[in-house]
């Protein structure tokens, strides 16, 4: 099987989506994929970030760990996995800004036929995980990506996550993803990487 290239691009403010992103990357790497992890950057200024305790500090620490994503990263990848916390039932504006910036390579047809998958997190129960992931499916379709859902294709999905992608509820940022949540995310990375590898081999 050809070694697939997986881009995991995410936004995280308090670490929940970051934890899922790391698990997705681990799952993909475990089956031989080459992975790039990228964190999108804040759109607001320090005065807004200061209104939420820990935001600026967490952002600075994560930005030290991860490069910002570029359009070239998306072109490089065979599959793109987007991750986001919910913002009023949809994706974070930080992730949306990165996606909007892909218009140039999209217009050139450089994203068409790649695989796409999504994961997300919320602060509260019924906080919009499924609506957020489904809204991202619209984006994947417009980019020309082949959507890779999870269904109920792994036992972990009967304990955590959704058929649309890995999810987590932080209970007001008092909880961190547990083993069941991370198992779904690792499986998502594995599934995307394996399907990407098969797709590459089929067209060679």
Entry keywords:
204 residues; alpha/beta; Rossmann fold; seven-stranded mixed β-sheet; 8 helices; 7 strands
Question: What would you say about this model in short?
Answer:
GO terms for molecular function: NAD(P)H dehydrogenase (quinone) activity. The chain has 204 residues and is of the alpha/beta class. The chain is 44% helix and 18% strand.
Overall pLDDT, averaged? 95
Give the tally of β-strands: 7
Class by alpha and beta content: alpha/beta
Largest sheet: 7 strands, mixed
Radius of gyration: 16 Å
Tell me the fraction of residues in β-strands, as a range. Answer: 15-25%
CATH class: Alpha Beta
Uncertain parts:
none
- Please state the overall shape, judged from the principal axes of the Cα atoms: globular
Keywords: Flavoprotein, FMN, Oxidoreductase
Family: Belongs to the WrbA family.
Pfam family, one: FMN_red
Protein name: NAD(P)H:quinone oxidoreductase
Structural account:
The model has no long low-confidence stretch (mean pLDDT 95). The protein has eight helices and seven strands. By secondary structure, the chain is an alpha/beta fold. Strands 1, 2, 3, 4, 5, 6 and 7 form a seven-stranded mixed sheet that branches. This is NAD(P)H:quinone oxidoreductase. Pfam families: FMN_red.
